[in-house]
Design a protein that fits this description.
The protein has 44 helices and 10 strands. It is mainly alpha-helical. Strands 1, 2, 3, 4 and 5 form a 5-stranded mixed sheet that branches. Strands 6, 7, 8, 9 and 10 form a 5-stranded mixed sheet that branches. Strand 7, helix 35 and strand 8 form a beta-alpha-beta unit.
Length: 999
């Protein structure tokens, strides 16, 4: 061979799509292809396949496998002369290595691709049954099955049939195979066959006439005794036949296997009997079946065995399927089913999952099936087991928008085509998009993407997945808007009753009110209404994902009414990706955040991605600067404090919104996994905000009463959770007030000024207004409520030196200056440090006194009738238990261990562990319990709008607390069990460390 010719052939091969041109050239020059080596038709046909290299290798293997020269010459002559065969055979060889293997083992099977009769173009069940008729054992059945599969694949890769027709042919072939397998089983056990009537019910994709190339074939078996036979014996016979049928299809032989037969959709799953009588099936579905089991029955159809019994099964169960939406737990079941089950998909694979991943095939199938269950009871036209047929019927009836249905249909067909071609290559069950460049190239070319197959495939795949992800939720909601907006006369739309049924199915408790809200928001021809019609389908889905969809929709209407005339509001929700979802989460998560927002709806701007500041909490310095600037502009103290409280309200909304979004997660970012980080952020943010508000109020009062200089130095010391940077949404601000007369100022005058400041601050911060009050609590001062509100530093020193009790040293562990004179605050801390971190630790009497106080508090403060195990503050293993245990360690060891000298509970606990005062396991147990109890208190305030230490009793509120804590619909019991378990373990540690020898 001359170098010039080699170069020319090499170039031609590359131009025709070969990637290994050198190997292809050697194969073309081999003896098998010598008679047709120079025929341009062959090279053109190879170049048209999905993988020319694979097709050429398969063709050479097929020629090598021919029994003699005559057979080889017949194949080559037919290949060159007959374009239909050429396209079919090379198309299969270029798309499926597994079918190339079959042809190499059975070299005469290529001839099934020669015929080109009309019935061959669109074979049905009868043609496949004829194709399998001569199979008498599992091995011959596999060979015949592959031969039929060869013809299906040929029509598929050549474009003779579309993806839906291919799926239907595969289901028909599966039906014929089940019938053939049952015939073999009966022939092997004629006595069993005579004793019973056995029907095989196709389920899943087989039942729905939409099977993949390689898939489990889902079935249910139903049997009755033959005339005169004993029922128990008949069931044993039927079970033997059913088991044998499953083995015939599933077991691996010299010709491989066909596919697994899966009977796990039967009543009780794999724990239930393989075969039941019809009456037993009926009793189970009437009494025990769950919603998903009725959903599965949407696709049931008799496929093999006794046809009359199979039809009787359908006739008996079909009415139950269409009553499933009336079941008491239907809404909760739907909410659980609507959340994608992706936990079992490895993280590395989720983005490659065609079936279960976001925007995958399951999204389309579930959405269609749910709408069938809701509306199919009243409209028999929707009762198809085939996804695309059902989608078309839903569009025709106005149950989904026609445009949405058309786009979803197109996306679903593309994704199913990808799935088919991926499975066809090796005939292996997989839903993962391959990663190797060669595999992606073959896949892209098989779908007609030839310019840049890998890039084009990736782009089209992602585009179609995005279409599914965006549309599958809108399918539920857009027709609701069409029903109330009534913009296109003559267009099919939901009836009021159908709209009501759909809202109920999606979790709305008051569908009539919901429809009124939708009508108010979306009716009309204004630009505002048009934008709302774009936004609402998505928002309604997010509301339905919460524990209280009705509240979410009502709150959205209120915010929209308040901001409807502002040009930026709807633009923000439409154009900024995060804003609409963040708003939906916030409005449906409880009362606190919406209440804060309603008082100043313009705070919606904080929810966006842009210049609104976002949801990241602001630091104390920035907050103080803003509040002090607002106070400086005010005409008097009342106006100044009103401005400070307005900033506090806005920032509380920012903190609450960030907490809700972080706890719920969004479509683009998962929920925050570190619960402790969420608690720390809220505690620090609310504490900083409270400190800035107190500082601004102090400045306003002093400025209004004394100008720039108060006659006494004045400091405010944060106590309790305030000093510990652990304030919750509903916490009071525990403080001590300390002052020190300025030089030359009379002590009485200084004291009077200090007391006036305190009284005015407390009054202004509690004035009735649209802003939440801030309660200043000074009950931790010396002598408690009986002592003076304000003392001088000297008075504190004298009191602590002479009268201080163990509980006061204990309380001072959380003391930290928060506002006022910094030097005075620092000197107060220097004064109390020896008390809270005593040089010799605690005397045994003091330890006993602290334990006695703790025990008394547990018995006296717990509200009557409350379940102690669910009380987040005072219950066993709750906040009080953990904090007193940590604080006892601080009192005992704080002098020697610098890390313990902190006002923060979690930081002190970590320092105690590092110092060896408790082991890592016990520290983790206490930390987990403290974080969980704090989260429960925050959740109760967010959900109910008022502070509380126990779980709510109202079901929707309890469910909302569960959603905040990460529990889906129907898992409230799991949440309460987890809380009891966590706090019970913590209490065991507390018993040891606080009350026992461990402390």
């Amino acid at each position: 061979m001359t170098p010039g010719r080699r170069s020319s052939t090499f170039t031609r091969l590359l131009r025709h799509g070969f990637t290994d041109a050198a190997s292809a050239e050697r194969l073309l020059d081999g003896p098998e292809l010598a008679p047709v080596r120079d025929d341009p038709v062959l090279l053109e046909a190879l170049g048209a396949t999905a993988d020319p290299d694979l097709a050429l290798r398969g063709l050479v293997r097929l020629l090598e496998a021919q029994p003699d020269t005559t057979a080889r010459r017949e194949l080559l002559d037919t290949l060159i002369a007959a374009k239909p065969l050429r396209d079919r055979l090379l198309g299969v060889l270029g798309a499926s290595a597994a079918l190339a293997d079959h042809l190499a083992r059975h070299p005469s099977d290529w001839q099934v691709l020669v015929t080109y009769e009309p019935q061959d173009l669109h074979p049905g069940l009868a043609e496949f049954e004829r194709g399998l008729a001569e199979a008498t054992d599992p091995v011959s059945l596999r060979v015949a099955y592959r031969r039929c599969l060869l013809s299906i694949a040929a029509r598929d890769v050549c474009g003779t049939t579309g993806v839906a027709e291919t799926a239907a042919e595969l289901a028909d072939l599966a039906t014929a195979t089940l019938r053939a397998a049952l015939a073999i089983a009966k022939a092997d056990a004629p006595e069993d066959a005579a004793a019973c009537r056995l029907a095989v019910i196709g389920m899943g994709k087989c039942g729905g006439h939409e099977l993949n190339y390689v898939s489990d074939v889902d079935v249910i078996f139903v049997a009755e005794a033959a005339d005169g036979a004993d029922e128990a014996k008949a069931l044993r016979s039927a079970t033997g036949l059913a088991s044998h049928l499953m083995r015939i299809c599933s077991e691996t032989t010299v010709e491989g296997s066909i596919w697994p037969v899966d009977a796990n959709l039967r009543p009780e799953g794999r724990n239930g009997p393989l075969v039941r009588t019809l009456s037993s099936h009926l009793a189970y579905y009437q009494r025990w079946a769950k919603t998903w089991e009725f959903q599965a029955l949407l696709k049931a159809r008799p496929v093999a065995g006794d046809a009359d019994l199979g039809q009787a099964y359908l006739d008996a169960l079909e009415p139950l399927v269409w009553k499933a939406a009336e079941r008491e737990n239907f809404v909760a079941d739907v909410q659980k089913m609507r959340r994608r089950v992706v936990e079992n998909i490895p993280a590395a694979e989720i983005e490659r999952e065609l079936k279960l991943g976001p925007g995958g095939l399951r999204d389309v199938e579930f959405a269609v099936q749910l709408l069938q269950l809701v509306h199919g009871r009243a409209d028999a036209s929707l009762r198809s087991g085939t996804t695309l047929d059902a989608l078309q019927a839903l569009a025709a009836g106005g149950y989904v928008g026609r445009e949405d249905a058309a786009r979803l249909d197109e996306a679903y067909r593309f994704l199913r085509s990808m799935e088919h071609r991926i499975q066809l290559y090796r005939l292996r069950r997989t839903h993962l998009v391959p990663q190797a460049e060669d595999d992606l190239r073959r896949l892209g070319r098989s779908l007609g993407l030839r310019t840049d197959p890998v890039a084009e495939l990736t782009r089209e795949w992602k585009r179609n997945a995005t279409v599914v992800r965006r549309l599958h939720e809108k399918l539920f909601y857009r027709p609701l808007l069409d029903a109330v907006a009534q913009l296109a006369p003559g267009e099919a739309r939901l009836s009021p009753e159908a709209a009501r049924e759909r809202l109920v199915a999606l979790g709305y408790a008051d569908p009539a009110a919901a429809l009124r809200h939708l009508e108010a928001l979306a009716s009309g021809v204004s630009r505002k209404a048009a934008i709302q019609r774009t936004l609402l389908p998505v928002l309604l889905g997010w509301f339905a994902d919460s524990a209280d969809p009705d509240a979410g929709l009502l709150n959205f209407r209120k915010v929209s009414d308040a901001l409807g005339k502002t040009p930026w509001y709807l633009r923000l929700l439409r154009d900024e990706g995060a804003a609409a979802e963040n708003l939906a989460r916030v409005l449906s998560a409880g009362r606190l955040a919406p209440d804060l927002l309603m008082r100043a709806p313009e705070a919606v701007a904080l929810l966006g991605d842009g210049d609104g500041g976002g949801l990241a909490p602001r630091g104390r310095l920035a907050l103080e600067q803003e509040i002090l600037a607002a106070v400086g502009r005010a005409e008097n103290a009342e106006q100044g404090v009103t401005a400070a409280r307005g900033v506090r309200r806005r920032e509380l909304f920012r903190i609450a919104a960030a907490d809700i979004v972080g706890s719920y997660g969004t479509e683009t970012s998962p929920a925050e996994a570190d619960q402790g980080a969420l608690v720390d952020r809220v505690g620090a943010a609310v504490s900083d905000l409270t400190a800035a508000t107190v500082a601004g109020t102090l400045r306003a009062v002093v400025r209004d009463g004394w100008g720039d200089t108060l006659p006494t130095r004045f400091a405010i010391i944060g106590m309790g959770r305030f000093g510990g940077h652990e304030l919750g949404y509903g916490s009071d601000a525990d403080v001590l007030f300390v002052h020190e007369p300025c030089d030359g100022v009379d002590e009485q005058e200084a004291a009077a000024a200090a007391n006036r400041v305190v009284a005015e601050m407390r009054r202004l911060l509690q004035l009735p207004s649209a802003d939440p009050p801030l309660l200043i609590d000074a009950d931790l001062r010396p002598e408690g409520k009986s002592g003076p509100l304000v003392r001088t530093l000297t008075s504190y020193a004298a009191y602590y030196r002479r009268w201080s009790l163990a509980w006061e040293s204990h309380a001072l562990l959380r003391a930290e200056p928060v506002a006022g004179d910094q030097d005075l605050g620092r000197r107060f801390i220097e004064l109390i440090d020896p008390l809270r971190y005593p040089a010799r630790g605690l005397h045994e009497d003091a330890v006993r006194e602290i334990r006695r106080l703790k025990a008394r508090m547990e018995s006296e403060r717990l509200p009557r009738g409350a379940d102690p195990r669910l009380h987040a503050k005072l219950g066993p293993g709750g906040l009080s238990d953990v904090e007193w245990t940590v604080q006892l360690l601080q009192l005992q060891h704080g002098h020697e261990v610098p890390g313990l000298r902190t006002t923060r509970t979690r930081a002190a606990l970590a320092a105690a562990q590092e110092a060896g005062l408790l082991d890592a396991e016990n520290a983790a147990i206490l930390d987990e319990a403290w974080v969980l109890a704090t989260r429960v208190r925050n959740a109760v305030m967010l959900v109910r709008g008022r502070a509380g230490d126990t779980f709510p009793t109202e079901p929707r509120e309890l469910a909302a607390v569960g959603r905040y804590l990460g529990y889906g619909a129907g898992h409230v019991g799991d949440m309460l069990d987890a809380y009891r378990r966590t706090t019970r373990r913590a209490r065991t540690v507390v018993e040891d460390l606080f009350y026992g020898d461990g402390g």
